[in-house]
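Sequence in, structure out.
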Amino acid sequence: MNTILNWRPSLAATFFVSAILLFASCSKIEDQIGSALQEDGDLLGAAVVDTFRLESYTFKADSSRTTGLSVALLGDLQTPEFGRLNSSIYTQVRLSSLLPAIADTAIVDSLVLVFKYATTSAFYGYEDEMRFKVYRLTEDISVDSLYYSNDDILYGAEDLMHDSYIPSVPNSEDSVVTMLGDTLRPQLRMRLNDAITQEVFAEARIGTYFGALTEFSAYFKGFKVVAEKVGPRGNILGFDLLSIDSKLAMYYHVESPDTVIPLRYDFLINENTARFLHFDHDYAGTQIEMALDSDPAGSQYGYVQSMAGLNLAYRFPSLRDLNLQGGIAINKAQLIIPLSYGQDTSNVSFPDRLFAVYRNDEGVITSVPDIFEGESFSDGYYDEEEGAYLINLTRFTQQVLNQVITNPELMVIPTRNSTSAGMVQVYGPENMTQQARLRITYTEYE
């Protein structure tokens, strides 16, 4: 797999490279050459090598921040490769107006918690029936606090869903017609039971807790919403909680001798309400359970999973052996991570993009320097021709050789970690079918 590429240089190319080598300092090689020559076909006397020894291992990701996200994930999904994944939503609701004028003769009809489906990332998994449960929070949450995927808030034991609720297949595509005759965008509508409906309606009419936002949030702290799969598989759903269609809607009516007037009061979910997600993973009985305990030197497969699931680590024990050849200028370096299609790709989405990070000398997780050159340079996307994710590590590799980066162990993480349910199985460096590898194009200089 070691290939040497040679080109006959033009006079102009020879002068250009000679000028660089004459005037560039060794400490700036990665700046002067590494980013200037990117295409292999443009290189002068360059070598391409992808036989470096790699070690990799899968590890559990740290918790991720899930406060106030653009997409809120809710669901329960089981796959043979990744085990069980569950996401629940914690959210406040907020008064849309103070002291709503509700007539003494008004009669309440229903209280419905509504989550509008996101326009993208709305459905992951299988078209299976799901059961949703709603609980009332008993602990305060604050819009000024940061919450993470492993955080929990205290809540009551009673499921507030109405007795008429029947588990069904979520529908993220069809519009909904309400009891007021409104046609609304696709949404999950969760009717709450009569007891909580009557309580909230009575308090709204009396107004004791409806005169100030702080008084209401102290009285009604919010909801925890949970999803449970009915069958063996399930799904993960994405919602836009910042949409005006996401809310707690209280339907009531006023009767007169001649007519019935339907009315509605909305409790808002918006940027001023605290909300966050809680993720749970269970890898029991999967290959991942074994991979988490495997020897990095014998890695056959690797796993990347969003929602604070799984990350990959790569080590390059022989990379600095390049320095034995003398001065090395890295023209291009790519980490190639081939996909294994041993999973059900029809119902599982891959991560859109992978990022590479490392720990600096202070132990702080830092993006590789290539990321600061822009998206097109750093890449990280899936390449159909290669059948792999390609991550540009040109500057990172040069700085490793120059001892600027002293800890060259990479961690590969998915983009949209908290707002998508992407997951992928990839080949490890020791797999017999395909191998993860580091492909480097470089030139030598005196």
